[in-house]
Amino acid sequence: MSLKIFALNLGVYSVGKDQDFKPLGPGDKPLKGEVKLALNPFLIEQNNRLIVIDTGLGSFYRDDMTPDLLAKIAAHGYSERDITDVVCSHLHLDHAGALAHQENDYWELTFPDAVIHMSGRELAKVKKAQHDHQIEDYLSFLDARGTLHFIEDNPEPFEGLRFEIIGGHTEFSLAIFGRSGGAGYLMAGDVLGVRAHVNRKFAAKYDFDPGKSQEMREHLLKQAYRNDVYILSYHDDGSPVYRLTGWDEKKGYTIETAEHDVAI
C-alpha cells in the first residue's frame, strides 16, 4: 500500500467577475476587486492507480495550458497514457477544462486511457444551460468519446476512492476521499479551495448555495481532523497540501503545511 501526492502548479492568477485568468508573477498582488488564485491539479499515485484530480483550463485559456499540465506530469516520470483515472470536483472550466484539448481544430482526449469520474447530474445541468458553442462542442465530445463514470451510479468505483455530492459551490459539487493503508486525503473543490477557508466562516457570492458551502466546510474539516488526512486545496498559491494537527475553541484549527510532493 502506498500513497504519493503531487501538486502540479499551473500558475497564479488574478481573477474577477469576468472569470478572466490574468497571470501574476511572484509577489504580485491581484488587480483591484479581484482575487488571487493558483491552479493546482493533483497527481496521485495510489496503489496501482494513477489519478489526476481536476485539470486546469486547458484549451480554454489564451495559451493552451495542456502542454504545461502534461510536462508537469512527465516531470514525475509519467505520460498521459499512464493516467488511469481523472476526477472532476465540479465542471467549472478552471477545474475541468483539460479533459480534452484541441489539436488542429479537433478535440482530443488528454488522457485517452483514463476513466473520467464526475457527477452525471452536473454534466446534464451544464449541458442544458450552455450557450457557448465551444463549450457545447467540448461537452458533447466528452460525452461521446470519453470513458465517463457518473458517481451517482457508484460512489466508490474501487477500493480507496470514494465520492460524495456535497453541493454548495455548484449544485452537485463533489468531495473526494482517498485512502491507502493508514493514510488518506480529502479534496472538496472550491468548498475548500484555499487554506484560508479553514478558520473562516463566510458566505461566498460565487457559490450556488453559500450556506451549504459553509455547512459542508465545517463538516469536512471535522472529518479531516478526526481522520488525520491531508487536505488538497486546488486554488492555494502557497501550500495546497496540508493537515489539521490541533483544535482550539478560540483560535480554530492548527494547520501543518506539507511540501508540494508528499509521499506517505
Describe the fold and architecture:
The chain is an alpha+beta fold. It has a single domain, classed as Metallo-beta-lactamase, Chain A. Helices cover 20% and strands 31% of the residues. The chain has 5 helices and 18 strands. The chain has helices spanning 66-74, 93-96, 120-129, 133-145, 210-227; strands at 3-7, 12-15, 21-23, 35-38, 42-46, 49-53, 85-87, 100-103, 106-109, 115-118, 147-150, 161-165, 174-180, 183-187, 230-232, 241-248, 252-257, 261-263. The strands form 4 sheets. A 7-stranded mixed beta sheet has the order 11-10-7-6-5-1-18. A 6-stranded mixed beta sheet has the order 12-13-14-15-16-17. The protein has a 3-stranded antiparallel beta sheet with strand order 3-2-4, with no helix packed on it. β2 (12-15) and β3 (21-23) form a beta hairpin. The protein is globular. The model has no long low-confidence stretch (mean pLDDT 95).
Briefly, what is this?
The chain is α+β, with helices and mostly antiparallel strands. The protein contains five helices and 18 strands. The strands form four sheets. It has a seven-stranded mixed beta sheet. A six-stranded mixed beta sheet has the order 12-13-14-15-16-17.
Distance between the termini: 10 Å
| Assembly context of the chains | single chain
Calculate the mean pLDDT score and round it: 95
The CATH H-level superfamily is Ribonuclease Z/Hydroxyacylglutathione hydrolase-like
Second rung of CATH, namely the architecture: 4-Layer Sandwich
Structural class by secondary-structure content? alpha+beta
Describe the strand arrangement of the main beta sheet, using strand numbers: 11-10-7-6-5-1-18
**In the CATH hierarchy, what is the class?**
Alpha Beta
Q: What is the C-alpha radius of gyration, as a whole number of Å?
A: 17 Å
List the secondary-structure elements in sequence, H or E: EEEEEEHEHEEEHHEEEEHEEEE
Please report the number of helical segments: 5
The residue fraction in helices comes out at 10-25%
| Portion in strands | 25-35%
Largest β sheet strand count, sense and barrel closure: 7 strands, mixed
